[in-house]
């Protein structure tokens, strides 16, 4: 089981909108050197919704090549079309991904039985460890703990990224006591509290910017050292807020550009960060010990 800080890696792009594979390799190196436990490639933060299938698969493959077996690579392969999710998951397996992350089908709002059948069908079609991803704020679809409990019985469904950001939901999931089933926070602001409640780690946006601090904070929280985790989290809590002043990954791409790590380019319909938020993000970077005048 993977524990601790897992980075939800951005997909860096050039000014013309093309994927910047050189910058991608540099971000992979930086994150691994900082102690990340794993990398999620082409999740929400990686702009999965605007990459073509060919680009999607290529970014996963390049990430796997750059990681070179040093940390697991989890491929984002979710879709609101079950056949498409199977296709992407199969491609990720062929590329060498260690696991797949599958978001709840967005827009079409399936009922709980539809969610159960969707995920079970993908899992039975592709023999690779699969992590469920619940993010109602993006999908207009909330997967309930009772459905997670059913899906945990499927042998290669091995975990859940829960991004509701609600500690009552965290406690409900921990109370299920699912054996050999990983629970990951998908909400940086409540990640520390979630791990202290019993979650195994976080799939993090903030870890793009301060990977070393996130790795240390998560290691302490998973070990139950609430005092150390709180001290580290206090320095980066401003980033947890600032990186969501506009929809992810708009702020995190802007922050990485401020640090000179990638271009701020992003694909429509998303646009670069509104200047009204620039100083707020800069202030959070300084407070976290990175950026100009840190």
Automatic annotation (TrEMBL):
Class in the EC hierarchy, top level: lyase
Entry keyword Amino-acid biosynthesis: yes
Pathway(s) served: Amino-acid biosynthesis; L-lysine biosynthesis via DAP pathway; (S)-tetrahydrodipicolinate from L-aspartate: step 3/4
Compartments where located: Cytoplasm
Active-site residues per Swiss-Prot or TrEMBL entry: 133 (proton donor/acceptor), 161 (schiff-base intermediate with substrate)
Catalyzed reaction equations: L-aspartate 4-semialdehyde + pyruvate = (2S,4S)-4-hydroxy-2,3,4,5-tetrahydrodipicolinate + H2O + H(+)
Binding site for pyruvate: 45, 203
Keyword Ribonucleoprotein part of the UniProt annotation: no
Any one Pfam family match given in the protein's UniProt record, by short name: DHDPS
Site features described as Part of a proton relay during catalysis, chain residue numbers: 44, 107
EC number(s) per entry: 4.3.3.7
Family: Belongs to the DapA family.
Task performed by this protein: Catalyzes the condensation of (S)-aspartate-beta-semialdehyde [(S)-ASA] and pyruvate to 4-hydroxy-tetrahydrodipicolinate (HTPA).
Subunit structure: Homotetramer; dimer of dimers.
Name under which the protein is recorded: 4-hydroxy-tetrahydrodipicolinate synthase
Species this protein is from: Pseudonocardia zijingensis
Lineage, opening ranks: Bacteria, Bacillati, Actinomycetota, Actinomycetes, Pseudonocardiales
